[in-house]
Every structure is written in structure tokens, then in C-alpha cells.
Amino acid sequence: MALVPYDDTHLWGMQKLHRLSSVYSFANHTIQIQQNWKQLGVAAVVWDAAVVLCTYLEMGDIDLQGRSVIELGAGTGLLGIVAALLGAHVTITDRQAALAFLRSNVQANLPTDIQPRAVVKELTWGQNLTSFSAGHYDFILGADIVYLEDTFADLLQTLNYLCADHTVILLSCRLRYERDQNFLMMLRGFFSVREVRYDPGNDIHIFEARRHKQKDEL
Ligand SMILES: C[S@@+](CC[C@H](N)C(=O)[O-])C[C@H]1O[C@@H](n2cnc3c(N)ncnc32)[C@H](O)[C@@H]1O
After folding, report:
1. d(C-alpha 104, C-alpha 126), whole Å
2. Residue of the nearest CA to atom 11 in ligand 1?
């Protein structure tokens, strides 16, 4: 599957995507992300869902200090970078074609003492999952990764594989199409899902999902 951009008719949104870099302030750090929409499309720009989830993490309701985190479909890596700056051990993943650009943004934005806590690794949903330790992660993060219907089953399989009973999944997304609601229905088949935040300015939802409890645990 190519890294193809898709239509975003909102003019301001398009302008942001075409910038060659964008600057953020999270966790007392200035983060400068390089973007390359023209060559790499959706994986090489920062989506609003990532910024909204970074803001949520920074609010501090969730303590990431020393926790084990994996980010799926990381794109430029902003979310994984912020998780690392907030003290987590982070595995930042995307498809092979996105990795070089992702790695350069991660390396450019993490101080040398924090770099050992962030690993960039290929994870194409549904593929080679055994190279990740199942059930190892405290948090699974994903920003704007619910958008391609063809990938829904693989994404769900990946979440199922990586998720242990204690794992918290946080997905931020704009629900653009009916199919995105379908993914939430599929997710509810395996996980207890609740909306923990809605950002009306950006029209971004954050959903938290946890594995269904077994009957004998209830
Ligand atoms: C809309 S972008 C979001 C990027 C980033 N999370 C953000 O919010 O800025 C979707 C990301 O999902 C990744 N992606 C799409 N299909 C994938 C797949 N089958 N396996 C792994 N990653 C995939 C893309 O490469 C891209 O980085």
C-alpha cells in the first residue's frame, strides 16, 4: 500500500500539512517536526489527532513515568516523542516506508539522555507481530490511525495481540466517515471502550479501550 495523501478540503488544514516543519511545546520542550507531505503523504505530516492526544497526556491524568508504551502508525513521531519526554519507554512504529523520516524526527527531538528510552521499529498492522512481546505494554497509543477500512481487521488483530489485561489503549481520531464508526463497533467486540475527551475545536475524539473483563473477574 502506498503512502498516498487523501483529500482534506479544509483550507487551513491543508496549509498546515504543506508546511516543511511545525513547532510544538510539550513537556517543557520545544519540538520541531519536519514534514514532507509532497513525497511521503499522510505519514510525514502531523495530524490534529496527535496534537490533541499529546495535550491529553501532558495534562497528567495518566502517569507515563517508567511505563512501557507502544505507538502505532506514528507518522512523524510527535506523540511517541512526547510520551518519551514524559518519562515513558516507547516503541514508536509505522510501516517500513515511513521509518527513515520518523527516525530522523525522533532523533532530532529527544535529548541524548532520553534517546535510549525510544526505539523506532517497523510494525505493519497484522504482520510479524511475534517480533513484539505480547502483553508487554502498559499503553498502546494511536493518533489518526482509524481511516483505512482495508486495514481495520489487521489493526484490530494488532491491538488484540499487543494488549494485556492491564493495558490501556488510547486512540485519538476524527470520525470522518461512517466506516470509522464501524471500526469502533468492531473494537467494542473485544474491548470496553469509552470516550475520555472530545476536542470540539479540532473535532477530535479520544477513546480509551481496555480488554473486556472475564466473567469470573466481574
Ligand atoms: C493519518 S496518519 C497519522 C500519523 C500520526 N499518528 C499523526 O497523527 O500525526 C496515519 C498513519 O498510519 C500509518 N499506517 C497506515 N496503514 C498502516 C498499516 N497497515 N500498518 C502500520 N501503519 C499504517 C501511516 O503510515 C501513517 O503514518
Report:
1. 25
2. 73
- Longest C-alpha distance within the chain, in Å? 53
Q: 86 CB under 6 A from ligand 1?
A: no
Of 76, 72, 105, 104, which Cα lies nearest the Cα of 90? 72
CA 15: distance to chain centroid?
22
Among 46, 145, 177, residue to substitute to test ligand 1 (most atoms within 8 Å of Cβ): 145
Cα-to-centroid distance, 75 and ligand 1 (Å)? 6
Domain boundaries, the chain: 11-217
Strands 29-34 and 68-72: unpaired
141: its cell numbers: 497509543
52-109 pLDDT, tens digit each: 999 999 998 899 999 999 999 999 999 999 999 999 999 999 999 999 999 999 999 9
pLDDT tens-place string over residues 157-190: 999 999 999 999 999 999 988 888 999 999 999 9
| CATH 2.60.40.10 at 11-217, yes or no | no
Question: Does 9 have pLDDT greater than 90?
Answer: no
Ligand 1 centroid to Cα of residue 53, in Å, is 15
In angstroms, the CA 200 to CA 197 distance is 10
